């Protein structure tokens, strides 16, 4: 049974990964679908503005905090090696660290950077916009599922 400070750490991990699952899900279900209906110049400008807003403390605290918590859970699990929940704790950490945080670095951020280099009204932006929305949303869906799965397996570790 997970107890004491380790229990609190895992509960914080549940909260962090759960919040990120909700953010990613809401973005895929609402935001990118709405942006996709805009003319390319408006969609590109709006998404670039969102990407700038995303690197502010409100989002980054939750996003990076969930990654730090997941890494801490993995390290503590290796050190403590609890009788119950070890597999779930390590799996939850891997799901968030690789499926959410890592995927952001290798899939979503490069697309954001490419979009940021485009002038919203330029022909290249109009051509790239539908590709960006499709690819970025696909990877965002994976991040949402990975974050939700991390949350579920962390909860299972506590039961």
TrEMBL record:
- Pfam families, per database record: Anthrone_oxy
InterPro entries given in the database record: Anthrone_oxy
Q: Where are the transmembrane segments?
A: 6-36, 57-81, 87-109
Q: Which UniProt keywords apply?
A: Membrane, Transmembrane, Transmembrane helix
Q: Which domain of life is it from?
A: Bacteria
Q: What is this protein called?
A: DUF1772 domain-containing protein
Q: What organism is this sequence from?
A: Streptomyces broussonetiae
């Amino acid at each position: 049974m997970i107890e004491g400070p380790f229990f609190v750490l895992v509960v914080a991990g549940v909260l962090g990964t759960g919040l990120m699952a909700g953010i990613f899900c809401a973005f895929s279900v609402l935001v990118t679908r709405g942006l996709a209906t805009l003319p390319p110049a408006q969609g590109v400008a709006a998404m670039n503005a969102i990407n700038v807003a995303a690197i502010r403390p409100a989002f980054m605290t939750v996003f990076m905090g969930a990654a730090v918590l997941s890494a801490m859970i993995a390290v503590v699990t290796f050190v403590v090696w609890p009788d119950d929940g070890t597999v779930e704790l390590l799996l939850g950490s891997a799901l968030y660290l690789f499926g959410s945080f890592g995927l952001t670095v290798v899939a979503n951020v490069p697309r954001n950077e490419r979009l940021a280099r485009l002038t919203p009204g330029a022909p290249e932006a109009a051509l790239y916009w539908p590709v960006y929305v499709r690819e970025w949303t696909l990877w965002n869906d994976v991040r949402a599922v990975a974050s939700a799965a991390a949350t579920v397996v962390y909860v299972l570790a506590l039961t």
